[in-house]
Specification:
By secondary structure, the protein is α+β, with helices and mostly antiparallel strands. It has helices at residues 14-19, 22-29, 41-54, 65-78, 80-86, 231-242, 265-276, and strands at residues 89-93, 100-103, 109-112, 117-121, 129-140, 147-150, 155-158, 162-168, 171-178, 181-185, 188-192, 196-201, 204-209, 223-230, 245-249, 255-261, 278-283, 286-291. Helix 2 (22-29) runs parallel beside helix 4 (65-78) and helix 3 packs across helix 4 (65-78). The chain starts with 13 loop residues before the first helix and ends with a strand.
Length: 294
């Protein structure tokens, strides 16, 4: 893209400019720039829209055309080479109380739990199937070359399988539903097969046989199963699933085994708190939990 031609001057008043629709503002702002390959400014803008839309994976909410246009102002001024690099990186992020499903470029199906994010390089993914995960996701991996999932707590490698990966803060575990999975964290390595999971502990990665392995992915159906897990971890899940702030005034070392649904906050709190002798109070989006007196 060439330098701006200063011979072209804006002759619009501020009121006239603000009265334009977004795309006209963009085209006006681009006056004096040359688009690549002899394309017209309108063709360049439309090509940008089509390129952006084509690269959006399924199962996600598309940006409104208004925001695409706003982004295109900056991107078109930087040139198409920069545009290609910007859109070569794909990332999916879920908010609290939100889950989403989508397909990766190789056909691998992914379900992403609330408060999680995943990103990969769209340009090189088919050659080197590798991505980064922060949070929790279920993968139904398309058979093919080696597939790697990188988290801050460890790396997961598979060839074609169904598995669940959980990596939040210092908590890290992987369950295998089919195929074979290699999990590494630091110098520790575990290979797990269907019905097995591995978890990062103070002693390193530990392999665990689990005859209820399907329950590790029950969150996809809105059910959350915890076996001898700390209350603080369970309350963090409540925060993500119901988009609330939970304050716990009690013993942080207490653990429990429990299953609850993300359909109703009060029902979930009853299931957790009543057996543990806890009381709770809900006010707006804040939940206060404390030990029952006596």
């Amino acid at each position: 893209m060439s330098e701006r031609n200063d011979s072209k001057k804006y002759k619009l008043t501020a009121a006239e400019f603000h009265a334009m629709d977004t795309e006209k503002k963009i085209l006006k702002a681009m006056e004096g720039f040359k688009t690549p390959g002899g394309m017209s400014e309108e063709q360049a803008l439309e090509a940008m829209f089509k390129k952006a839309e084509a690269r959006k994976p399924s199962g996600t909410i598309r940006l409104l055309r208004y925001w695409q246009a706003a982004a295109a102002v900056v991107l078109l001024l930087l040139g198409f080479y920069t545009v290609n690099n910007v859109f070569s990186k794909d990332k999916i992020k879920t908010a609290f109380a939100e889950q989403t499903g989508f397909s990766l470029p190789d056909g691998t199906r992914v379900a992403l739990n609330a408060g999680s994010k995943i990103k990969w390089s769209d340009k090189s993914f088919l050659e080197k199937r590798s991505l980064q995960l922060d949070g929790e996701a279920y993968f139904n991996v398309k058979k093919g070359s080696r597939f790697s999932i990188h988290t801050k707590n460890g790396t997961v490698e598979i060839l074609g399988t169904q598995l669940n990966v959980f990596s939040r803060k210092s908590e890290f575990w992987v369950s295998c539903l089919s195929g074979k999975v290699k999990v590494s964290s630091g110098s520790d390595v575990q290979v797990i097969t269907p019905g097995e999971m591995t978890e990062l502990t103070a002693s390193g990665l530990v392999k665990i046989a689990n005859d209820k392995i399907e329950q590790t992915i029950s969150w996809k159906n809105g059910l959350f199963y915890f076996e001898d897990k700390p209350l603080v971890s369970i309350f963090e899940t409540l925060e993500r699933q119901f988009d609330v702030n939970v304050s716990f005034e009690g013993n942080p070392d207490r653990s429990m085994t429990v299953t609850f649904s993300n359909k109703n906050l009060q029902e979930a709190l009853d299931v957790i708190c009543i057996p543990m002798g806890l009381k709770y109070e809900i006010k707006n989006n804040k939940v206060r939990i404390s030990e029952s007196a006596g």
